[in-house]
Amino acid sequence: MMKIIVDCMSGDNAPEEIVRGALEGKEKEQLSNALLEMLLEAAEYEGCDESIVEYLVKFPLIEYYFTFVEKLKILVKEKILSKDTLFNLAMEYIKNSKDENLIKLGLTLLKYTENKNALEVLKIFTNHNDYIFYAIESIREYEKCNSIIFDVAKAANGYGKVIAVNNLELLSDEIKEWVIEKAADNEVLSNIIAAMKFDEYEYIEYFINEDKTKDKYKTFTKNMRLLCELEDYLYGNISFDLVYIYFEYFKEFSVNFDNLYVILSLISLYHNKEDERSRVMREELSKDERLILEEITKEIFSNDYSNIVKAELNYNNYNNDEIIAIAILLNIKLSFNDFKRKLVNSIVDLPIYSYIIEGESYD
Questions:
Q1: 359 SS3 class
Q2: CA distance 271 to 269
Q3: pLDDT tens by residue, 74-121
Q4: SS3 content of the chain, % helix, strand, coil (to 5)
Q5: pTM of the model
Q6: Radius of gyration of the chain from Cα atoms?
């Protein structure tokens, strides 16, 4: 998960376009020192910007960013670089350069200027996914930074929202509620966002409230479905308390395939005989919790969800193998006719034909 977040921090538009391999600490120090020397020259003489651009093309700032800003901070504290000089350099790069790398450097230099105008510039650049990482990192040094980042997160979308949420501290009830209700509403990496700020205690506090509503059920399902996509994450972060609370909603409101997918994924954490982690989780349950788990399991498997499962075959919300897996788990027989609509769009669908050939369907 963290690798994807770092990919986003580079300002690239796709997570697969990752920053180059991580550098050893000494290499990062050397690269930072070299860039700082060039900046000191730029502060004293003119005509150094082109060499800085060439350097940043060869050695992108993202590769050694955190080492660089720590060293920059020391220069400012030692008054080797004044805050005014830093601000003037930064604004020169931001306003007069068309080079993306130099603009990123300029935004980084604004980190320690303590300048109100600098803060306004940084806010503007949070609107650009290519620059949002550098802008937010610099904003973190200003007063009310978390409130500013919260505003950014609410307005952002795409990879920019991932970066903003990752930098958001849950310091107020308003922020905590927004993180649960809306943070994961994003066009990319929604499951990563859900996992980044998942706090089981906050979830229990929010959803255990006696005022259960359909909207809360929908939000609960949405977020748990996203977390279910990260199976390895579930094993270390979901307790039985949360499973039971979700089941309480499941019993009270109508059931769709999303709800079914979530509740089965959650109880499967304790019933997966092929996974050692499942055995450990089950052994950690108290006697009462084990009895409750068995009651939940029995109640779910005593109901007929065949219409819900078959109806889901008409949509594209889940992979066919996921739908088939749930059908098999619930002992629901799917016929060739049930798959007709799916096969119109994809004549060759291996999960479907494997299921049929293995005799899991009937005519």
A1: coil
A2: 6
A3: 999 999 999 999 999 999 999 988 899 999 999 999 999 999 999 999
A4: 70, 0, 30
A5: 0.85
A6: 26
